[in-house]
Amino acid sequence: MKRRHFLLATSALSCSLVKGGATVGSSSTFTPQSGFSDYPFSLGVASGDPWPMSVVLWTRLAPNPLREPSLPPTNIPIQWQVATDEAMRQVVAKGTVLATPELAHSVRVVVEGLRPGHWYWYQFKAGREMSPVGRTRTAPAPGDGDQSLKLAMVSCQHYEKGYFTAYKHLAQANLDVVFHLGDYIYEGKPRPGRIRQHVGGNPVDLETYRLRYALYRTDPDLQAAHAVVPFIVTWDDHEVENDYASDESQKFVKGAEFLKRRAAAYQAYYEHMPLRPSARPSGPNLQLYRRFRFGNLAEFSVLDTRQYRDDQACDGNGKGGGQMVYGCEERLDPQRSMLGATQEKWLLDGWTKSQAQWNVLAQQQLMAQLAQKLGEVPGFWSDGWDGYAPTRQRLLKFIEQRQLSNPVMLGGDLHSFWVTDLKTDYQDDEAPVVATEFVGTSISSGGPNYDVFSLFLPDNPHIKFFESRLRGYVQCTIEPQQWVSRLQVVDTVKEPDAGLRTLESYAVEAGKPGAQLL
């Protein structure tokens, strides 16, 4: 058999055993035996979307990721293997997958037939080049005895605003899974004088979005985190454009033109994330909301609060995106939605069927009401849950009426820490608490004005903690009878080797919604 035919046959066999292998298109297959122009695994390796018996492995061939494409527009075979030891001697699965130019020579391998709740190591090979060895973990199966889960939630990593030092510490925390809640990249032109510099102009098409992701993926601390723990990801706005809403651009770009940009952004996101092949976008559409079960301990519903939402309320003043609104009746219109009818029904149906001890909503923003009152009339931020209050009310009412077991909401976006009690009636200080919320600060993006936001706290007694001056992440340990969240902060993002400390720790007791300071 000729070598080219052998490689294609090997790939086809691999795809029959392992979901997610690339199919051979019109492009011919390239064999990199003569070597690459530079190290091809410059963007590292990653894993994600863990299920009890499978997990996604990711890498992308990019010998010169920040320059013109240095690979031919052909398919390139990549070998992969999975082992139960870091030395890669006890191999339990292996195969070959094609890296195609249509996906920027990125690959995702869905390795099936693994043992639930176990650690595995994996590695890729292209020609004579070997990737770093990555580590990943499958989710425990229902009924498994593993009744503890250690996770982190992260968001908002602006490359120009600082180093991703928090990831260096996160990579050493021996976590089971990481939830990334949005703003993996930031769009926009480079700004001189910042700590680091974006490469290229403002992303608007597939080539420029690919360049922006490649830049972020070259960060050594981000690579280190991806290499040791599986990520479950969702997006917010900056993966496309600040404060966009469905097909509505913040800058009022016409619908067809903006959807073309959204399609390019979604494609680049898919190419650089360890998502399952079922998430592959179709034009400007990509279904990102999905659910994960970790034994009987916890079930996570991961939301997409950008793609299906209605446009922000009360924007008839010519301002696009989020803004402070006062006396805005439109934000209280029950026909408007943050999630869209289909996703909202999916969420409530899942909650109805859930048998998990802890039910977790992993989404992008602060869910608690934040009345920003400096005068007589309080203002509300139209881009967050306050701008879509009926959607929030429906979810919290459902939790209250169905007595959902131990609901916890996780959020990001605001570049600050928040610990809140969620209620169905924020006008009544004595109203029962129905869920607990933890919002994490940013990895590097600057936070809102601490002094100004502190002035709002007396009018929002359900907010137990707020801090916007520090960067970091939230680390959580979940056990059957207790949830503990530790607010982890780095000393600075202006230096790459800054230290880490715990700012505060909060606990939630099973059956008692509301966090208590430890």
TrEMBL record:
Entries under InterPro entries matching the protein: Metallo-depent_PP-like, PhoD-like_MPP, PhoD-like_sf, PhoD_N, Phospholipid_Metab_Enz
> In what residue span(s) does the PhoD-like phosphatase metallophosphatase domain sit?
151-486
Which keywords fit this entry according to its UniProt record? Hydrolase, Signal
Q: Name one Pfam family in it.
A: PhoD_N
- Signal as UniProt keyword: yes
Signal sequence, start to end: 1-20
Domain Phospholipase D N-terminal stretches: 43-138
Transmembrane regions: none
Q: Which GO terms describe its molecular function?
A: alkaline phosphatase activity
What EC number(s) is this enzyme filed under? 3.1.3.1
Q: Which domain of life is it from?
A: Bacteria
Question: Could you say which enzyme class this protein belongs to?
Answer: hydrolase
Q: S-adenosyl-L-methionine: present as a keyword of the record? A: no
The name this protein carries in UniProt is Alkaline phosphatase D
Q: Which organism is it from?
A: Acaryochloris thomasi RCC1774
